[in-house]
Amino acid sequence: MSDGLKCPECNSENVYNDGTLWVCPDCAHEWNPEAGAGDSAVEDGVIRDANGNVLADGDSVSVIKDLKVKGSSLVVKGGTKVKGIRLVDGADGHNIACKIDGIGAMNLKSEFVKKA
């Protein structure tokens, strides 16, 4: 099914491709194998988007897939443009702080955005 690709979280071989990301149905981990090794897009202090472009404070990005807002029924739709991001050192992998129209302030993972 995955041509030898394994989940970096649980090492399961039961993974599938969903657009630009790979998904593990066993542990629900999603990743982009082209973004490099590691769980997030942070290597050597550089934060990169899903396509490997370097992000900086004040950049505008677009969300690449629908994201559920935890603890709410809201959904950030794929294609939503976010202006004026701020890069943060999130312990949970959320390394972008931003404000999204209609939703408010929230944190995003850089692997779910692309530079606009």
From TrEMBL:
<feature type="domain" description="Protein YjdM N-terminal">
    <location>
        <begin position="6"/>
        <end position="32"/>
    </location>
</feature>
<keyword id="KW-0378">Hydrolase</keyword>
<dbReference type="Pfam" id="PF08274">
    <property type="entry name" value="Zn_Ribbon_YjdM"/>
</dbReference>
<dbReference type="GO" id="GO:0016787">
    <property type="term" value="F:hydrolase activity"/>
</dbReference>
<dbReference type="InterPro" id="IPR013988">
    <property type="entry name" value="YjdM_C"/>
</dbReference>
<dbReference type="InterPro" id="IPR013987">
    <property type="entry name" value="YjdM_N"/>
</dbReference>
<comment type="similarity">
    <text>Belongs to the YjdM family.</text>
</comment>
<dbReference type="Pfam" id="PF03831">
    <property type="entry name" value="YjdM"/>
</dbReference>
<dbReference type="InterPro" id="IPR004624">
    <property type="entry name" value="YjdM"/>
</dbReference>
<protein>
    <submittedName>
        <fullName>Phosphonoacetate hydrolase</fullName>
    </submittedName>
</protein>
<feature type="domain" description="Protein YjdM C-terminal">
    <location>
        <begin position="47"/>
        <end position="116"/>
    </location>
</feature>
